[in-house]
Please model this.
Amino acid sequence: MPAGRRKGNSDTRQEVLDAARDCFAASGYDGATIRAVAAKAGVDPALVHHFFGSKADLFAAAMELPVNPSELIPSIVSGDVDELGQRIVRAFLSLWEEPKTRRRMLAVLKSAVRHEAAATMLRMFLTRELFGAVAKTLDAPDAGLRANLVGSQLVGLAMARYVIKVQPLAGASPEALVAAYAPAVQRYLTGKIA
Amino acid sequence: MPAGRRKGNSDTRQEVLDAARDCFAASGYDGATIRAVAAKAGVDPALVHHFFGSKADLFAAAMELPVNPSELIPSIVSGDVDELGQRIVRAFLSLWEEPKTRRRMLAVLKSAVRHEAAATMLRMFLTRELFGAVAKTLDAPDAGLRANLVGSQLVGLAMARYVIKVQPLAGASPEALVAAYAPAVQRYLTGKIA
Model:
């Protein structure tokens, strides 16, 4: 089923996205399935896969997250585990430093603070996809907590720099922030935390 | 001027708080003065001092922050600087672990995310009072950035544990969190960050 230019494709795509938003809202990230989204949109599940890839990618598209998890996550977790902290901080900052993606990241963050349901969906997605991938890379019994600790520093960095805009942090260069944060993130990943 | 029980004291107190909220909203934390608040409430500045203490304390009362900065901050910054990280994490967690104070902290955090003006006021207050006190204790040229780094980890901890409620972080014991976070906070305060 090629992604042709024929009329109707973009309508169908939009219908799938609408169905996905409904399903994620009704069933949560874990409960929603590609099959249920397809049924709701009146299309074949293969078409949903074709348009959006994995459930994680469909979620990202439905939430208008400015990332494609299937591409981003492997590029972060692959490579030397001793530099995982640095790769994570760099990737996170690059999402926030670009004005266009920053707007979407801000919207997602604000939505999670305002709406319990949005917080729940974001939590499930992060737990299943992002923290899960990091935890798998670490292969340690406390990997789940370690991934959470990293997440807590990243969301705090976003809050301080892009929402509360406290100085001098808000005006610091991305490279200065990598130097300041990467060792802390690396310790959360592979250091002594108990 | 003793804090008597006579009729009218609580009305006056409320009028001062209302005037303070107006002044902080209009002039920001730095621009607002005890004198201006007193003039707006139609009372003597000495009465404002008498009821609320310092400008920081008046701000905390007006924002319904569940802390008294004049008491809390000295208790954190005094003592061995090598254990400052641990004292900060413990004090922050104790504010959030108590259901009543947690509700107020959550309200302040949500307000800062929703309203630019609230974020600005909170930023000025934190910069002037809390980060300022920590920076003074550190007495280092990059103390401002160090205090910001600490703040970013604390707000991220609050977001992850109490707003997004990601597991296992949300269910971890306060002591486990002190063990996990205090060394990171201590490094931000006194370690190599550049």
